[in-house]
Design a protein that fits this description.
The protein has 268 residues and is of the alpha/beta class. It has a single domain (2-266), classed as Rossmann fold. It has helices at residues 56-63, 81-86, 105-115, 127-133, 149-162, 179-196, 207-213, 247-266; strands at 14-23, 30-40, 45-49, 71-76, 79-80, 90-93, 167-171, 199-203, 216-220, 227-232. A hairpin with a 6-residue loop joins β9 and β10 (227-232). The chain is globular, with a radius of gyration of 18 Å. It binds adenosine-5'-triphosphate and magnesium ion (MG). Magnesium ion binds at residues 56-57, 171.
Length: 268
């Protein structure tokens, strides 16, 4: 299948086992995550939600191989995450788009292709195609400062997809945009994702967003973060904007809110 092109044929996607991570000096260390088990299979879209400061970004950075676990293991496709990172199989979208101000929209999206010429996975779509799919076909030659916040987020998403990574890690990519833009961004993301269904781990604070996007919503406990609940979302795909107001979405959202309430009250 296209989504497995160039990657190990292991069934395992992303697997974090008994992971612990603390920050700061010994004696005054702050435990960010502890005893965390998380598994995301190939082709699955999983959303991570939890109280502020519970360790969501830390989980993403561990999964990206950007920070190293103190204990436990982080594996991608049956191998240590450091290897996947070296082989450029991971696309990471940080909370702020972090575009290169001096490069045009198109050259921002081309950037990972230029620096990762030896990436094992060949992109399935060109930067122009990705930008077109995200509604940016008319602004290819503009610079980031000339774009709205929502447009910049779209560029960051196109850039993460550009080199055809096997895994996409997104840290609240839509937090800085207004509600209506956010709603259209998530459906644009779904449309781009639907084409080749990479493994996605997506952090959000929005319950509805988590339900509309995900195959499974994982709720983390208050710090130190560990998995408190896993809620499957069995809504058919492709998911449309109309679905947002449906009773099915609201029923799952209620369940997620209940789990969030339990972890928030449990930490008081
Ligand atoms: N580089 C770091 N140095 C020191 N402490 C850190 C670092 N990164 C995270 N922490 C601490 O680890 C804990 C978890 O932080 P993290 O950013 O993972 O939480 P979060 O769930 O993403 O929060 P938010 O919802 O506010 O984005 C916090 O107490 C934070 O202060
Ligand atoms: Mg965070």
């Amino acid at each position: 299948m296209a989504r497995d092109a160039g990657v190990s044929q292991s069934d395992e996607g992303l697997v974090l086992e008994r992971v612990a991570k603390s920050f700061g000096r010994a004696g005054r260390a702050r435990q960010a995550v502890s005893d965390l088990d998380l598994r995301v299979d190939h082709g699955r879209f999983v959303c991570l939600i939890g109280p502020s400061g519970c360790g969501k970004s830390t989980v993403l950075r561990l999964a990206a191989g950007l920070v190293k676990a103190d204990r436990g293991s982080v594996q991608l496709f049956g191998e240590d995450v450091a290897l996947a990172r070296r082989e450029k199989r991971i696309g990471y979208v940080p909370q702020s788009p972090a575009l290169l101000a001096w490069r045009s929209v198109l050259d921002n999206v081309r950037f990972p292709l230029e620096v990762n010429r030896n990436a094992p996975v060949s992109p399935t779509r060109s930067p122009e195609e990705l930008l077109g799919a995200l509604g940016l076909g008319d602004v290819l030659h503009r610079h980031p400062a000339e774009l709205s916040g929502g447009m910049q987020q779209r560029v960051a998403i196109a850039r993460a997809f550009a080199f055809g990574p096997s895994v996409l890690l997104m840290d609240e990519p839509f937090s800085a945009v207004d509600e209506m833009t956010r709603e259209s961004l998530r459906h644009e993301l779904l449309a781009v994702w639907q084409a080749d269904q990479r493994l996605v781990l997506f952090v959000t604070h929005s319950v509805i967003e988590a339900v509309v996007l995900a195959d499974e919503v994982v709720v983390l406990s208050a710090r130190p973060g560990r998995v408190a609940a896993r809620i499957p979302v069995e809504l058919t795909r492709p998911r449309t904007a109309e679905l947002e107001d449906s009773s099915e979405v609201h029923a799952v959202a209620r369940e997620v809110r209940g789990a969030l309430r339990a972890v928030t009250e449990g930490s008081r």
